[in-house]
């Protein structure tokens, strides 16, 4: 288990399927995480298990726990490019009581430390939709820089929005003052 100041990260377990189903089928969680609602389908437990919990789907996905070890979200990485030592990150705080309180920033810092210093990644990236200002502020606090925009790449509640692409290099991360 990986530990931050306020959060812990642990690998997925089969007992997490019901909480994943709750988060992935929650309109407000999906709105902020992906700008995506309605979903094309509401996932049942079997679909959640097939999508995230089968061995071939093990793509660096972790459960975020709070100080009391209660699951509050998920984070991880995908699209690994081994020669370039890079990957794409994602994070969702599924428990709304923990939004805007620094848990996502702390969990992402734990993941950044792990990937830069244990996995020896050189570059980590992520993307978000241009209406998610809270996430963008948290990413900037951790040193991510805006690298580009995909114009009208997201369709949110009947309107097109840009996707913002952000990246962080290990050298930049190690130069940041620790919060």
UniProtKB/TrEMBL annotation:
<dbReference type="GO" id="GO:0005840">
    <property type="term" value="C:ribosome"/>
</dbReference>
<keyword id="KW-0808">Transferase</keyword>
<protein>
    <submittedName>
        <fullName>Acetyltransferase, ribosomal protein N-acetylase</fullName>
    </submittedName>
</protein>
<dbReference type="InterPro" id="IPR016181">
    <property type="entry name" value="Acyl_CoA_acyltransferase"/>
</dbReference>
<feature type="domain" description="N-acetyltransferase">
    <location>
        <begin position="7"/>
        <end position="171"/>
    </location>
</feature>
<keyword id="KW-0689">Ribosomal protein</keyword>
<dbReference type="InterPro" id="IPR000182">
    <property type="entry name" value="GNAT_dom"/>
</dbReference>
<keyword id="KW-0687">Ribonucleoprotein</keyword>
<dbReference type="Pfam" id="PF13302">
    <property type="entry name" value="Acetyltransf_3"/>
</dbReference>
<dbReference type="GO" id="GO:0016747">
    <property type="term" value="F:acyltransferase activity, transferring groups other than amino-acyl groups"/>
</dbReference>
